[in-house]
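*** Residues and shapes ***
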Amino acid sequence: MSSYLPENELRQFIDSLPTRRLASSALIRDPRGRVLIVEPNYRDGWTLPGGTVEAGEDPRTGCFREVVEEVGLHLPEGRLLVVSHGLSAGIWGDSVAFLYDGGVIPAETEITLQEEELNSHRWVEPAQIPGYMGERMGRMILSGLEQLETGGVSEFVLGG
């Protein structure tokens, strides 16, 4: 006798489970230690290159795919630096965001913006990051910079 649910009941159960959106971005620096940020055209403010992880895609692959699409950079896939849990984030609901090391690129590297999603890009000093990104995302990025030095991974819970 099997204790498994019939397929229709299993489907009902799975459909009742909470969903979370996944996003991932890359912390890309220049030789001076400045961080590459981008200005999306679909919302106010600035962010890091990266975006939504697609169905059937792991966060690291999604991150570096998005980097190619958004800024035209083919980078080695760096290690995980930060995991951030966004809880009850309004229209976005719950989410998990991953921050990966995008490495250091030469200052003269050409950035090719994805015009469908981005207005501009800029290199900013670490101390300027909270002013561009806001306090929460700023803390996450600054923690990512710290993790580059320590070799660790940090975790944040935002909202809730």
